From TrEMBL:
CDD domains: PH_APBB1IP. SUPFAM superfamilies: PH domain-like, Ubiquitin-like. Residues 97-181 form the Ras-associating domain. The keyword Protease does not apply. Keywords: Receptor, Signal. Residues 223-332 form the PH domain. GO terms for molecular function: insulin receptor binding. The keyword RNA-binding does not apply. This is Growth factor receptor-bound protein 10 isoform X1. GO terms for biological process: insulin receptor signaling pathway; negative regulation of insulin receptor signaling pathway; negative regulation of Wnt signaling pathway. Residues 1-32 form the signal peptide.
Amino acid sequence: MESARTLHRQDLAYSWAMGTFILHSLLSPSCACTYYQDTAMPVVTRPTFSLGRLGTLSPRTSKLKASAARPASAEHLALQALRPGRSPVLQPIQTSDNHIVKVWSEDGAGKVVEIPADMTARDVCQLLVYKSHCLDDNAWTLVEHHPILGLERCLEDHELVVQVQASMSSDSKFLFRKNYAKYEFFRNPLNFFPEQMVAWCQESDGSIPQSQLLQNFLNSSSCPEIQGYLYMKEPGRKSWKKLYMFLRRSGLYYSTKGTSKEPRHLQLLSDLEDSNIFTIITGRKLHNAPTDYQFCIKPSKVRSDCKELKMLCAEDEQSRTCWMTAFRLLKYGIVLYQSYNIPQQRKSNLSPFSAPVVRICSLTSLSYSPALMPPLSHDQSRLIH
């Protein structure tokens, strides 16, 4: 009976010692470990050892003495007890679903924001406005900036920032700036859509009211059309060709025969669903453009390939604004109007005594405090620096 108890105590001591040794091996830099890329867990290559009187480990290269008798499954049981699924010490680190986004202000200061994948551009702007103590006048926007291509555009408020970032090249970046004219076409649509460029205005002798003008763009069942001359840069060359073009829900077309809009004379230049419209900021000399009013249609999947860009040029600023605004309306439709209404509804719900006190200042490094952050659509975002 006494010998059985002795063997039992030795087994317990061995199991405890094995666990202590493995944990010590994982923490010790002198221990030889092999890391596998798929599991990120080390496999310990240990020397043989014997048990001292107090259960301490004495590494040796010789075989175990016969006096340290133990059941054959003791080592196996010790390793099983420390499997990653059972030990909190060896539990794999839980990866976060958040993403890192860097945003630059116009003064050159940058901020790194950790946001979830479904956070919109509006929410990111709200976060930056709040943490920077800027005036929240609903004019702040994120700008997708491509310095090498010389392109930039304002993100729509509903766009997912992480998704847009995934389509950007390494040299591209987000800018944080104001754009007061972002939704101006909802307030003064007649200033954005000249009658000679809107097809149904010509058919009705310009008698359509401005409310109906916008309704035709927002209504998915209607077929609005913008038409007029544009210069198109020929692929691989610096020459430009003047063509009569038509912008519809299905895409941007140009006529191969004058101003004819017959289907057999129309050639698709670009669709709207998988493309975005950008302003060209490099000036007319770089592309030998005929005027200063350039813009570009860039496929979403293209990062830095200039051959896939559709370079266009308008006669004046009003016509360029008309083409670019119509592109946004035909692509997003009622979603733009809903984004425009959100700050208007928020203003109407606030009483004159509940408006928060804000101040204007430059972007500085601030820590994130969820308890002080106003409610957004996500509570997982934070400002790193």
